[in-house]
Protein: Glycosyltransferase subfamily 4-like N-terminal domain-containing protein
Amino acid sequence: MSSVPEGITVKSVGICGLIPFTRRALRELQVIHPDILHGITTASIPTLFLYKWLVHPRAKIIFEMHGWAWFEMRGTGRFFLRMTFLLLDLLGLQVADVIIVMSHTQKAFVSRWTFNSGRILVLWGPVDSLPSFIPASPEGPLVVGYLGNSSWWQGLHYLLNATILLKDDPSFEFWFAGFEASDLESIPRIPSIHYKGILKDSEVLPFLRGCHVLVSPRVLEPVSNLQFPHKLSGYLSAGRPVVVSATNDQPRIIAEARCGFVIDPLNAESLVHALKKFSQLPREEQQKMGERSSLFAREHFSPEILTTALKELYVIE
Structure:
């Protein structure tokens, strides 16, 4: 465990089901007897509730929600389990002293299911590092980039359809990375498209910096709309302008950062319009957008911001 920072003790209860996990975690917590308990995701709720009810009634409970289980388990065909996790989410909202959510859209949704929305804190996920700003190359065609998986809610198909509409325009080039080669059959065979594969950590920043503008076309649907767009934070930390869909906190971030365009409705034609609009901007303005992206990332996505927020929460009043 050499990667664990000094002062942190790791207690493992192994990989197991929800009930064995809760039982083992409670056993460990009875020994440690913390005054503050921070649970992550719905699976932590039984432990949080039972610890406060049976072991330490005055403990401060922090519930970190990464989504809404009822939406995320849709289509699994496991209604009883889905209902169980819905009830656990609702229980967590009532028992927690602080509720951490991933986005302002999630906060608005969760506020309808609990009392005292002042307990709800939005914490955008930080990036691992914040590199210095380097302008995009002024040479060659405009490189449009996408880095992420190929799940349907990512909206990748809209961007692929946009490449077809722009296939005869030599001023655009498209870079794709982050999904398996088995998904390549969905990519049009167009000379302007370049697939870079699954990137190593050391290859991510050069890929992003090699683009002039980056696209996050996430689909507006319940699961995606409540999540934080981690792809977007990576884009901004690389210092590049962005074109995004009107999903989750993406419009809010772009409006505050003034670093790109929001497309609504989400379709290939809207993407093409936004990309052409960006390409017609002077290079100086494109660079200023990138600089504003980098600045916004430093002000909102740094690990230090998360650390400061957690330190403020880890206080017994």
